Amino acid sequence: MIKPVRYSENNKNDILKRTSGSTADYEEGVKKIISDVRSRGDEALKEYTIKFDGVKLDDLRVSPQEFDEAEGIVGSDYKAMLQRATENIATFHRAQLRQGFEIKGNGFILGQKVTPLESAGLYVPGGKAAYPSTVLMNAVPAKIAGVNRIVMVTPPLQNGKIKPEVLVAAKIAGVSEVYKVGGAQAIAALAYGTESIKKVNKITGPGNIYVAAAKKLVYGDCGIDMIAGPSEILIIADGDADAENVAADLLSQAEHDELATAVLITNSMDLAQNVCAALENRLKNLARRAIAQASIKNNCKVIVTDDLERAVQLSDELAPEHLELAVKEPFELLKKVRNAGSVFLGYNTPEPVGDYYAGPNHTLPTGGTAKFSSPLGVEDFIKTTQYIYYTREKLRESADDIVMFANSEGLTAHAQSVSVRIEK
Fold this sequence. Notes:
Strands 1-11-10-9-12-13 form a six-stranded parallel beta sheet, with helices on both faces. Strands 6-5-4-7-8 form a five-stranded parallel beta sheet, sandwiched between helices. It is built from 17 helices and 14 strands. The protein is globular, with a radius of gyration of 25 Å. The protein is α/β, with parallel strands linked by helices and 424 residues long. InterPro entries: Ald_DH/histidinol_DH (IPR016161), Histidinol_DH_CS (IPR001692), Histidinol_DH_monofunct (IPR022695), Hstdl_DH (IPR012131). Its cofactor is Zn(2+). One of its GO terms (cellular component) is cytosol.
């Protein structure tokens, strides 16, 4: 059974220690897969699909008939729910759209233009679970950004098909180019292209450690959103929080995989003890009990601090992917939070509200990277280009400064490219 730990400076390092999401041990094997896909294309993809997924495919692309078949399988209530979730996600992400700008002065124009990426590849995990929500969270902001070509890759089921809910989500989000391929080999195909899959400018979406390693290795030849590690949740709760609710929220992340991390920080020892007891009871009837139990046993921490301010300080050092503020005045505490992927406020906003439905993105920085990274959004699917215009008079006015600057760096040709115009 998990037991509460009272925070002190002596155990701070243990508290801040987290599960490693390092890809280093996997990169050598992944390099070979990437190289193989680059040299043999579709043939390599099909062989890896047999090897890793146990499926022999003649055609990698999902056909229009398979999309129709999926719609026939999925009920109308489920489709209506996906539509509502899509609109919520779209409403939030439309607010992220930004325009270019121009600054005009006497003899000069400075500007920045915003351009959508030409293409994006969306990775949707399969295996232990398949995620229609990931389809929406990646495809909707890409569409809103104005990306021309959106390609989705996802591992096939044992029957050689894609989970119907995933295909219906793709159709609702406007993605029609879908391939039955997963793992590092799918990332290689998106980055470098094969006979069937034309390469893309950027790859987004979470995956297992092999996918993370592949994204890291192809970065530079194409863009990536982030290198996602194991899922994590940190809950800051006061004495008025409901122990059963807090335990349920911790388990909502623990069931993702054995490496997932769930942490509670509270100023109430009573709540901490009650949450530990509730965790043990709730685990007994959980569908994904074995996975959640391993996560809780190895990575769960229940920490008691003297006050909520210390709780926020610890949270900021951990910079969690998901942060729940299960406290009486969550908006006051939010003002003090600096580092978190997504924050869930109050007693009635569990993390799954954001995973599926509210609108903010669920593709979030993990492993402490929320200290310098942001959630996936429209900006991941655009790029900016800046521009400068000077009249002859403005160049003459600025020439001495520019020439002095260039000469101070020893770059005389830079200086001459300005002075030659002035001399004329």
